[in-house]
Amino acid sequence: MRNSAARVLPRAAGLIAAAGLLGGSIAAGPAQAAPGLEFGACPAGSVTADRGVQCAVISVPMDYAKPDSPRIEVTVSRIAATGARRGVLFANPGGPGADTLDFWAKRVSTLPAALATDYDRIAVQPRGLRWATPLTCQTAGDIAEGEQVSLSGGTRDEVKKACDAAQPGYLDTITTENTARDMESVRAALGLERLNFLGVSYGTYLGAVYASLFPQRVDRMILDSNVNPDWVWTEEFAQQQVAGKQRLDDLFTWIAEHNSEYHLGDTPFQVYENWVRLVSAQGGGWYANLTPPPASVSDLPGELPAPIAEIARDGVNLTLEQGGKIQNLVRTLLSGGASAQTPMVGATAVATYTRTFWPTFARAMSEASADPGNIARLLALEGVTATDPTGRFVFAAITCNENAVPGKPELLAAAVGTIATGGNAMDARADMVRSGAACGAWEPVVKPVALTGAELRTRPLLLQSRHDALTKYEGGPGLARALNGALITVEGGDHGTFGRGNTVLDDAVMTYLRTGQVAITAADQAPLPKP
Known about the structure:
Mean pLDDT: 85
Order of helices and strands: EEEEHHEHHEHEHHHHHHHHHHEHEHE
């Protein structure tokens, strides 16, 4: 849910797009993979140079339920421990659909140094992505051969026909369970009795599935920014909209507190008004329709004695939402009901990931406010979480193949009604997600694995921010209950809390890796890095 993008584990409809044709193949026949892995050079462009990363390729069954089915190839990266090795730590950064091979190399400077000395760090590229037998669904009919078909286009039968033309049967095997089984194949090939695992965002769900399938193979497990096991998948994405609104209010408040630097307003409401203006000017249409944050005394005209000002402020807040709806309605009518993923909207979505992005976003917004043509910094921020086309394909395949929350088509009308009456765009987007429109006629092919931690010898450690905009807070307690895990609640709303310079939290994680013990239940948010 990295990252989970305007969001990686978000935008259900927006991420379902055509994927590029990249290298990789499905080999016919039941030939078995050779024992062990031979590590050497990594595929071009897959990892950061000069970080000691090596790669290997493993052959695994395309369909684990059919041992004689064709085999696929999955790439694995490794950075060897620099000291006396304490163990092996696998990782997955989220998605679904995020490249994994470079996970450890990109984080060398931010993760605790003891990880490098004590652990071999492994990353298994999820099946269906580039460097892991990419999912390549060529089109049929009168469209040029070799083009990609969008998984959101046409009926299930039409899509499956196009995918099977290139890779018969492969599409239905793109699931979290099979990705977990690929990880187990890598563990066996490495000759490991047990593995340690770090999962972020969707990686928490992958880790939970692996732990439920192979509890005897798990030593320590850290799950950071957690998927709610009761929301897989439709409700997970709908809840992102709810959580996203809270995080936007937090962001506007922080910018207001630094008005002397960014000049965007000294109250959250004033920053919000500037944000709405910029989104509208860029053609965002009803995407600019948000419920305004609460007014402060500073938003009132003139100067009033404190008690009277507070009463007046409360009165203003009672009318702000209705006034906001009227402005939203006018905006919707003027735009003809259109909307667009503008640079401001895209950059805002990225800024909700972590406070690390807030200074950059505020600077970008300030530049665009002073000069509407100056959007270079907005575009750069929007592109931070861009994924390879195969990532968008795998996102669609996994979330539609195993979606356990049926769509409610009638909610499309509710979403239209919200937009038409000037309501909150995030409420409308949540109803659109709940309608099931992202998968359409795509029916699930599997039921999600029943999650349990009953047979784990060490309780998993779960980390969860209160205001996480991508994996809402309830996911932390929910997954902790399912796995009998120990939960650390982190203040703030960073998505991905480990390795952000939060000394208290990082120390707790490293203590857990060494001892299996969790000494704290709460931690403050990470400090903002100094410019």
